[in-house]
């Protein structure tokens, strides 16, 4: 992966060749699709191993991040690198870009040059030359964010203004640009400059929207639409009361099926609940001041993990963030498979092994896929797999459909699609928490659930339903 210094150097070399112009409804529905390209039929294990590995890499980033109208509908589509993508229209006149919808980060950024550099972006069926890019020079509403613009501080913190060395302290305006950003993700990174732009929805236009204009990235062929809880996120910039989505099941192919992402910018609804949804409150990470990156996560209070009828005895310290900020559960649309801390994973895996002891453990498949436990069910006339239920504060229960937590690797083997790191697989952490959230609820486990982030009432709602 490119270092921060090399990214900065290349960023400045690229930027020197570009010119940016300096120019002082109630519901939006956007199609949301899974980021899946056709899986090589000859090696399904390798593909599952890819998803498991990227889920763990994403978890490591979220656990140890680096601090660097009323309703609108838009479709979401699945992508091969694990997330769900949406399209946004920006600029004057409008240009359309594709972005991964991510509740685990906040900045909205996109490739914005024909010379966009993306290292290690050789994903299956991905042609980097054909990825839509935003061109600021073609938009009359594009403006670079100045160093003393308050929105520069949204990304870099209030101390950034002390670094505006080329600005007269007495001057009202400053032409020095906000510093280049470098953002690290679990899978890769991106670097670029901050823009003010117009974002266009049907019958509604929002001006002066802060966005990142990325010139180079590693393993990030498309942009990111940050839906986290920081000021620069799309929900906070649009003043959303709530947003919701229903993720279609992954087909592991190029099917153009999508579902809707709904952005609610309507008037206050006080305590109004959506019919049929179970709710649990969002939780604050009290130690987030020591690590501001934790502030953008959506923490929920997971009370119980239930396998079949057995309550897995997860230590309380894993379920609630401690005074050090570590522990607790977050909801993340940018993770594929749900991640659980090593000690919790061992308890969960062993409970499945105990209740499925009449099936042979497929150790070879476990090594090939990185998933565990896997069971050989070939030759079985009928197979009984225990239910998996997450119970949250307030009694809300998320009982997962079987396809949300077990994958059929081939005709004869099934694997649990919940992951942990290598130490967990060896049972080596001894019940000690590592840094960051202990449980990360990924998008694979959210399939075919209507999911609502009620920002106005600070709560998380869900119900099972078909999303197709």
Automatic annotation (TrEMBL):
It holds the Pfam family TAXi_C. This is Pepsin A, putative. Belongs to the peptidase A1 family. Keywords: Aspartyl protease, Glycoprotein, Hydrolase, Protease, Signal. Residues 84-463 form the Peptidase A1 domain. The active site is at residues 102, 332. Residues 1-21 form the signal peptide. Transmembrane segments: none annotated. Coiled coil: none annotated. PANTHER family: OS07G0603500 PROTEIN-RELATED, PEPTIDASE A1 DOMAIN-CONTAINING PROTEIN. GO terms for biological process: proteolysis. It comes from the Eukaryota. Gene3D superfamilies: Acid Proteases (2.40.70.10). GO terms for molecular function: aspartic-type endopeptidase activity.
